TrEMBL record:
This is Uracil-DNA glycosylase. Coiled coil: none annotated. Belongs to the uracil-DNA glycosylase (UDG) superfamily. UNG family. It is found in: Cytoplasm. The keyword DNA damage applies. NCBIfam families: PRK05254.1-1, PRK05254.1-2, PRK05254.1-4, PRK05254.1-5, ung. It is an enzyme of class 3 (hydrolase).
Amino acid sequence: MIIKNMHPTWTQELKEEFEKEYFRQLITFVEQEYRQFTCYPAIEHIFAAFEKSSFADVKVVIIGQDPYHGPNQANGYCFSVNDGVKHPPSLINIFKEVETDIGNPYPLSGNLERWAAQGVLLLNATLTVREHDPGSHQGKGWEVFTDAVIKKLSSQKKDIVFMLWGGFAKKKKKLINMNAHHILESGHPSPLSANRGYWFGNQHFSHCNKILTGMGNKSIIW
């Protein structure tokens, strides 16, 4: 079963989801796709977003849509790429905003595993994709699963900072209890949105840290 690398607390929280028929069909589809085609991320990294932090440790959620579909890019965390890989345009704009917002220098590596280890859930709505075929694994059940993850976090935890970037992510707001959590919204970091003034200057990274420290939590080292 390809869910073996999940943190055990996530396995426990989501065990009912794993037993549902849609999830069994989804895993059958994914395993078949990986046998027949080149797909991303590597099969052992499909659930990477759930590996580095326990369910209890999640403080921030960033929602993406699809994994990168080019060779060696996707590593299981939304917007993230493997070490040594050229940074995609959206990630470049994310790092530029971090730099101007809180002064952290632009990093060499685009691997956001370091964020995940601090309690940032970097969740794509669809966790797999066929090479050079964006959206190819949409509508197969991943969205049902990741919506269930968001709803479980919303219902069982408090004071998570949800960062919703772009129209797709903003649609997930309906899954979140806005009285129990903090929602930061802006345009998407893609060049199309950012160059129209919908991304740069949103100061989400400093706002997030102010919320976290105001509750006595550690800030994120972005």
